[in-house]
């Protein structure tokens, strides 16, 4: 009876796990499927068919996708997003890795205070300091230029420092000492020894930052109102207004904008998991 009770309990637990997994999967995949189905529907099908179902095969249309792809602002959005992502990530990697190396390897006065200030800066909600940040961007002459989001993405998010510190703390100090004894400068030690060993951290950071920047709508919308400075996310807003907006066109635009993020995640999801796991364990 005890064995039967144990097996019964195990089966019930497994059934609950499967049920919970299916519910979570439906919650995640459901909106994507609804958006995909809407993108290939006509306006009449949007009204007459369930959002959870595809239209009849003969009624499937790709006109919505074609219209979005032919939009004159789409090339600007792709160009602007690419420029912002590449430049922002480059400086995040360079500044973040160097700062983390200095904080982790060198002992100097107020080192812990500086690190605490970085932490406090991350804890303060962005919207509380938005007015001050807006004034700073205007004062620097960056408002309504690509420099505004680039400057913000480089300066306001300090996640890279914590990621790099986790990895650098795993590297033995003896590596630095051996190179210094061989006549290398600290710059050479970092460039030729430390930074190449931070490849997993760099891969993780690039993927996380790229996805976050591509998906951000708030900063580009607020700081770049110029039509030709639209990014992939603010490009969507043209299909959400009362004049030219429709659910099927907006869904088609969402699918097109979602493709780069989806491709990045599918291609590099292994790097994300390995990078986070490697940085979480200290030998």
Description:
- With 283 residues, the chain is mostly helical.
- The chain has 2 domains: 2-60; 66-280, MetI-like fold.
- The protein is built from 14 helices and no strands.
- The protein has helices spanning 2-39, 43-48, 63-69, 74-105, 111-123, 130-139, 147-155, 159-168, 173-181, 186-197, 199-215, 218-223, 232-235, 247-280.
- Helix 3 crosses helix 14 and helix 11 (199-215) runs antiparallel to helix 14.
- The longest helix is centred in the N-terminal third of the chain and has 38 residues, at 2-39.
- The chain is globular and about 75 Å long.
- End-to-end separation in angstroms reads 46 Å
Question: What's the CATH superfamily of the largest domain, by name?
Answer: MetI-like
Catalogue the unreliable spans: 279-283
Sequence of secondary-structure elements: HHHHHHHHHHHHHH
Structural class: mainly alpha
Helix coverage percent of residues? over 70%
Q: Into which percentage range does the β-strand content fall? A: under 5%
Q: Under the CATH scheme, which architecture of the largest domain would be assigned? A: Orthogonal Bundle
Largest sheet: none
Could you tell me the number of beta strands?
0
Mean pLDDT: 84
Tally of alpha and pi helices: 14
Overall outline: globular
Domains (count): 2
Rg, rounded, reads 24 Å
What's the CATH first level of the largest domain? Mainly Alpha
The CATH topology annotation of the largest domain reads as: MetI-like fold
